[in-house]
Amino acid sequence: MRPRELSATLSLFPAKTPTLPPATHTNSYALGGRDVLLVEPATPYESEQRAFIEWARSLVSHGRKLVGIVPTHHHRDHVGGLATFSRELGVPVWAHEETAARLEPEARTCVTRFLAEGDTILLDGLRPETWRVLFTPGHAPGHVCLFEEHTRTAIVGDMVASVGTILIAPDEGDMERYLVELERLAQLNAFVALPAHGEPIDEPTQLFRKYIDHRLMREAKVLESVRKVGPNGADAASLVPVAYDDTPPHLWPLAKLSLEAHLAKLVREGRVIAAHRATDAAEFFRVV
Ligand SMILES: [Zn+2]
């Protein structure tokens, strides 16, 4: 059943979205006891949007006040309802500048405040809450998380998920930065992390560290695959079956994106050399 009350001042509303399988839904959250912040204006589907608006209006009818809408980042399964909700509910959108820059023009006009690292959002109520903005790029250039010190609750967007995996794509992702930000989340020592996909995560520190370990394991396999192909090097497509030999082939198209993000990090670190083949300008990789 939705919405779900996670506590007196926190509720979760999962809505169907065009997200990456096996996930099918994106979680939106309402934070705060009197002032209410809505996080993830996610769904683009009309019937789901109607249900979301009904939920948001029910919060208001209980004497609460919607103060803002925050998308954690610009991906389509996070901002599909942004313009509609802002307009229908009369609530401004607060987003990181890099997120705002990637929104459709109509949605961009709804943004009235740019969120940046260290900003705080004070939500008044019986027990006021202060949510701190953490700028956590890596998965997406404008990705932000929110952290409340008293309840040690973290809104983590697409930094981790309890359903599916997090894609770090080479175009707008940054593997190196993603790992740094995961470590920063681990150091929060949060009691609970609320992801955009899947169930709330109790004691999430271990999971953040598991994600880091998993990526470093994969990085080692990527480096090893480059080493195996020898001095002539290979392109990304031919490295996938080696670096992802433990992954079913139907996932290799997605794996290739991750592999390219790993390669970009290894190249930046000077551990792998990227060169262009003279005949067809294809990029290929070899060890230093
Ligand atoms: Zn995303």
From TrEMBL:
Signal peptide (UniProt feature, chain positions): none
InterPro entries in alphabetical order: LACTB2_WH (IPR041516), Metallo-B-lactamas (IPR001279), RibonucZ/Hydroxyglut_hydro (IPR036866), Sec-metab_biosynth-thioest (IPR050662), WH-like_DNA-bd_sf (IPR036388)
Domain Metallo-beta-lactamase residue range list: 25-197
Alphabetized PANTHER family for the sequence: ENDORIBONUCLEASE LACTB2
Protein name: Metallo-beta-lactamase family protein
Organism: Labilithrix luteola
